[in-house]
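hiii so um. not sure if this is the right channel but i have a protein structure encoded as tokens and i wanna go backwards to a sequence. like what aa goes where. can anyone help
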């Protein structure tokens, strides 16, 4: 028997709306199983989508999507939405090269009204749409933002609530409260939401009502009849409305419900048993995040001034190790990158050695704080920027490819990219000894290459580059872990004697002395980075040539040209960008 017989009758939410209410329970079951079956082998975000299966069906059933506009915050929970809105057959390509995106994407479907990936944007976007509808006289249109309990605690969401509460916008905010983000939710708002659930009388006079919203809930988000009834009621109401829905992350898969952190994005698992597939046997080099996580603990054991900060990514950044060992010295501040940076600055003014760990892509949120609150005042915060460079399947919203470019123009900021695990350890060691300026240390997602990485610490000289190998024809300058691809390219060509390889290490301050040596010795200079070329390391070297009149040298820069890179494996994306070993070898060969 076809387990997806009912699901397969739906190619558009219009089909769904023709279905009798009694069949929706069976549809929810099939949709859940379909998500589990595909994610088990293709990987991706699991728990969040499983938790909103009933909500997704109810929303498309009651509202007239895509005319009514539905915005999913973060968008990692939108798999059910994708499947019900014409992408069931493509869903097996989710997050694969050339396949559909793991997040809502406007170019992919009219049902994806707003592209997401970074959190806490949905209320602003839906409010903008609602105000636009008012301008256009489209009074009947509904605008719905679905936002999680961790995402609503972010500053941007608060700003939007504050604005929406005094608007005439026909806006429905649905708080999908499962009491967890990737890691357990934190903060006073989270405590308040928990209290509301325990003592429903508190819901009567609550913070959301105080902001002028028509508040209802909390209601059980897995109870379809209850959801449908409430959405029908809200459909008739005008103005800003707020529905508080309680759900279970991972609903329907025992392991995903029990270990919600692991099953947020579990990797491959057995679709029948739910068990994670065994890891490959044998020792593997460490993940960079774990080099950070274990090293900060090691340093903190000796230096009582060290504190650590993460905005909502204790597991992803591995700051969780410090949170376990020194709970009073490690802070998860929630999805609050702006606050994290200024909070770090405040602590550092008081003489603490503050490690502020933020994914490169999420630091984009805190650019002004970095400039105004940190660099301008020369406050020596130690930023550890994880997931720098191409991150793979999360795609365009998450690649950390802009950091070198957006950091380089900030005065007083030291910028370092470790070439390997040992470099990362040593720069962390160096930074906590005390610097007079802030430092940004950027390193990639995934594993390094050394099993033997826990070497004794040694101090790194700020602003000094390193020659990795000698050669007589061309020079290649790389920064960060992409050096490994350069080394492989040189071996592919057996050009060890012809290609000199330098690791720039510091994008700021630049090692001008070594650069002068390079420019005096070579006419062809390649630069290689896993970031955007506009403004990045290649730009820095080109500016150097102009500044010092190196007119006879040719600089060829490899990196991300002017485009957003989509999703795929890191290796596939490196090939597209031309920074994989083979593509680089071809480029170098032209000049040998
Ligand atoms: C600006 C930003 N910071 C951090 C993240 C990483 N992140 C993705 S999902 C998530 C947790 C979201 O939790 P919640 O809003 O409660 O949704 P749930 O996963 O529970 O459905 C976090 C921290 C992000 N996507 N965007
Ligand atoms: C949706 C989101 O932003 C996170 O779940 C992100 O996908 C985590 O990325 P890592 O898997 O690199 O930790
Ligand atoms: Mg949540």
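sure thing!! here u go:
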């Amino acid at each position: 028997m076809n387990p997806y017989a009912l699901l397969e009758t739906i190619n558009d939410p219009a089909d769904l709306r023709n279905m009798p209410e009694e069949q929706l329970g069976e549809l929810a079951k099939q949709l859940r199983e379909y998500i589990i079956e595909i994610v088990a082998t293709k990987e991706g975000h699991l728990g969040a989508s499983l938790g909103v299966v009933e909500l997704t069906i109810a929303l498309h059933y009651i509202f007239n999507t895509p005319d009514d506009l539905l915005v999913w915050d973060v968008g990692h929970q939108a798999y059910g939405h994708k499947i019900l809105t014409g992408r069931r057959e493509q869903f097996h390509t989710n997050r694969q090269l050339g396949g559909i995106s793991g997040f809502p994407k406007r170019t992919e479907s009219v049902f994806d009204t707003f592209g997401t990936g970074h959190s806490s944007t949905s209320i602003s976007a839906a409010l903008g749409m609602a105000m636009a509808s008012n301008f256009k006289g489209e009074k009947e249109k509904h605008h719905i933002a679905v936002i999680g309990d961790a995402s609503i605690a972010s500053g941007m969401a608060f700003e939007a609530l504050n604005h929406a509460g005094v608007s005439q916008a026909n806006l429905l905010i649905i708080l999908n409260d499962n009491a967890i983000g990737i890691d357990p939710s934190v903060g006073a708002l989270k405590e308040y939401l928990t209290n509301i659930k325990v003592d429903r009388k508190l819901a009567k006079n609550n913070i959301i009502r105080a902001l002028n919203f028509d508040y209802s809930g909390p209601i059980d988000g897995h109870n379809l009849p209850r959801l449908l009834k409430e959405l029908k009621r809200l459909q008739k109401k005008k103005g800003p409305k707020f529905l508080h829905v309680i759900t279970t992350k991972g609903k329907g898969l025992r392991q995903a419900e029990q270990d919600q952190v692991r099953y947020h994005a579990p990797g491959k698992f057995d679709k029948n048993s739910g068990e994670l597939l065994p890891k490959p046997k044998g020792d593997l080099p460490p993940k960079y995040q774990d080099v950070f996580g274990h090293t900060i603990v090691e340093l903190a054991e000796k230096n009582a001034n060290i504190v650590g900060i993460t905005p909502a990514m204790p597991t992803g950044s591995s700051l969780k190790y410090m949170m376990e060992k020194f709970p009073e010295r490690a802070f998860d501040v929630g999805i609050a990158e702006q606050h994290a940076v200024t909070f770090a600055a405040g602590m550092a003014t008081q003489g603490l050695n503050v490690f502020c760990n933020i994914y490169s892509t999420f630091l984009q949120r805190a650019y002004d704080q970095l400039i105004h609150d940190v660099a301008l005042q020369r406050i020596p915060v130690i930023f550890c920027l994880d997931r720098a460079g191409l991150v793979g399947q999360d795609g365009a919203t998450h690649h950390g490819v802009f950091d070198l470019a957006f950091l380089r123009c900030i005065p007083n900021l030291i910028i370092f990219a470790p070439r390997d695990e040992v470099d990362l350890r040593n720069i962390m060691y160096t930074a906590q000894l005390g610097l007079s300026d802030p430092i940004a240390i950027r390193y990639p997602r995934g594993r390094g290459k050394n099993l033997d990485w826990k070497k004794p610490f040694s101090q790194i000289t700020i602003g000094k580059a390193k020659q990795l190998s000698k050669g007589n024809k061309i020079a290649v300058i790389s920064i960060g872990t992409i050096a490994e691809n350069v080394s492989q390219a040189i071996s592919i060509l057996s050009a060890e004697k012809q290609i000199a390889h330098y690791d720039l290490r510091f994008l700021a301050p630049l090692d001008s002395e070594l650069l002068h040596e390079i420019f005096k010795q070579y006419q062809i200079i390649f630069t290689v980075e896993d970031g955007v070329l506009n403004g990045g390391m290649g730009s820095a070297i080109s500016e150097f040539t102009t500044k010092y009149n190196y007119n006879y040298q040719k600089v060829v820069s490899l990196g991300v040209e002017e485009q957003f890179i989509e999703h795929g494996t890191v290796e596939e994306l490196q090939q597209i960008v031309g920074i994989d070993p083979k593509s680089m070898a071809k480029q170098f060969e032209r000049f040998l």
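oh and The first strand starts at residue 69 and ends at 72.
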